[in-house]
Write a structure and sequence with these properties.
The protein is an all-alpha fold. The protein is built from 24 helices and no strands. It is flat and about 85 Å long.
Length: 436
């Protein structure tokens, strides 16, 4: 396919002069990606120099188009970043000057009025060879050296940005010494330690990686907000301890983490580490610890471990108002789990689920509320608590009598019928239409 044909394809795909709304952005970007794939094919099929020039045209055209695109989803920006990566790859194939490539990219970073270069280095380093990585690092370091001091505001942004770019390049190169020196020139963070762990692992030094894990966890305790670094570091700590043959230490770390925060997620992490012959013991320890945890995580853990007696006891001693306040993601699985073995407790939870919806006055979910009430009715009957169900009905009639649509469904539930009348089949609807 000739360059002229591809330029025409670009223009048609970009639809200059037409505003692209958010809802149309996905299909718009898919068409642009089709053209980008043709450029990539051109680069790898023997005409990389021509492909690089076409990439430049495409990137420039996207900058011309940007004001005509509602890119709330970020898909258009992602497309532009992939074009920069494609351009870099094409220039490498064409054996273009690596220093020139790096300088051109750095210039785009310097004049990034649309934010297309935000974290662009994550895409670029995936395609760069060692020579291009070195030149890109040199360009980034040059700009970092001449950037103003970081005052924490807008004036310090270039330094912060080029520091992050250079860090990512050094991490990709596996240069732990240069990365650490760059961190120490500013402030070492727990996120930096996550990167240093990864570099150490790639360099084959698990002991060194474990040291960075421990340093990072210390920083997490000092930082106001560590983001996802703490989770990542603890996960890597368990993995490294296991690889180093320190299973007991890995279990101890996982148990301490669970003991501090007895949640279902941390229980699952604990069980990933514990060998089969110790799982029963740690399972029992975990559910005993959950007895003294906050109610939502305790409920989730009791469901996860099928501790239905403990679950029933915890819910039975919880007031109706507290049950209503709990998220449906916590209480609905609990009600389902207790439906057969503890129908009376399950009935109360189903009722709480329904009342939670009714109190929120979100009428589009009243059908869900009625389904919960059907289950509550069945569970009250299974538990032999017919009088309790009658009291519930009287209270609902008095409290929600003005919700006309809901009340019609409630009376059907009380009568033992489905909350909504079953709709006729499509064929029946068609016949009724003919016979009207």
């Amino acid at each position: 396919m000739t360059g002229k044909v591809l330029e025409i394809a670009m223009e048609r795909a970009l639809r200059p002069g037409t505003f692209i709304e958010c809802r149309a952005a996905w299909s718009f970007v898919r068409r642009l990606e089709t053209v980008a794939r043709k450029l990539d094919k051109l680069a790898t099929s023997g005409d990389a120099n021509a492909a690089a020039h076409l990439y430049e045209t495409f990137i420039g055209a996207c900058h011309e188009k940007v004001d005509e695109v509602d890119d709330s989803s970020g898909s258009f920006a992602s497309l532009v970043q992939s074009l920069f990566a494609g351009w870099t790859r094409a220039r490498q194939i064409a054996c273009a000057d690596a220093g020139e490539t790096a300088e051109i990219l750095a210039a785009w970073y310097d004049d990034d009025r649309y934010g297309f270069c935000l974290r662009l280095e994550r895409e670029l380093t995936k395609v760069m060879d060692e020579r291009h990585l070195a030149e890109f690092a040199s360009a980034a370091r040059e700009r970092l050296d001449r950037a103003a001091s970081d005052d924490g505001g807008a004036a310090g942004y270039p330094r912060r940005r080029w520091s992050e770019v250079l860090k990512h390049i050094l991490a990709t190169q596996g240069d732990i010494g240069a990365y650490l020196a760059l961190c120490e020139a500013s402030v070492l963070t727990s996120s930096d330690c996550c990167v240093l762990v990864g570099i150490s692992e790639r360099n084959g030094s698990d002991e060194e990686a474990l040291g960075w894990v421990e340093r990072g966890l210390d920083l997490c305790r000092q930082e106001t907000y560590a983001g996802g670094a703490e989770y990542d570091l603890k996960k890597r700590q368990r993995e490294l301890l296991q690889r180093l043959g320190r299973l007991d230490d890995a279990i101890a770390v996982a148990w301490t983490d669970f003991e501090e925060h007895p949640t279902r997620t941390r229980y699952e992490m604990l069980m990933e580490v514990v060998p089969d012959d110790r799982r029963s013991r740690y399972r029992n320890k975990a559910v005993e610890r959950a007895e003294h945890a906050d109610l939502p995580p305790a409920i989730e853990l009791f469901v996860e471990t099928s501790e239905f007696e403990r679950l029933a006891r915890a819910l039975a001693t919880t007031s109706d108002s507290e049950l209503i306040q709990l998220s449906h993601t916590v209480t609905e699985p609990a009600a389902n789990a207790l439906s057969a073995s503890h129908p009376g407790v399950a009935a109360r939870v189903y009722l709480a689920l329904a009342v939670r919806i009714l109190d929120s006055r979100r009428s589009k979910y009243y059908g869900v509320a009625l389904a919960h009430l059907q289950r509550a009715r069945d569970r009250y009957e299974a538990a032999g608590q017919v009088d309790a169900w009658s009291d519930v009905v009287q209270d609902l009639r008095a409290t929600h009598r003005r919700k006309v649509g809901f009340m019609r469904g409630l009376e059907r539930v009380v009568a033992g019928l489905p909350a909504r009348e079953p709709r006729p089949s499509f064929v029946d609807q068609a016949r009724n239409r003919w016979n009207r």
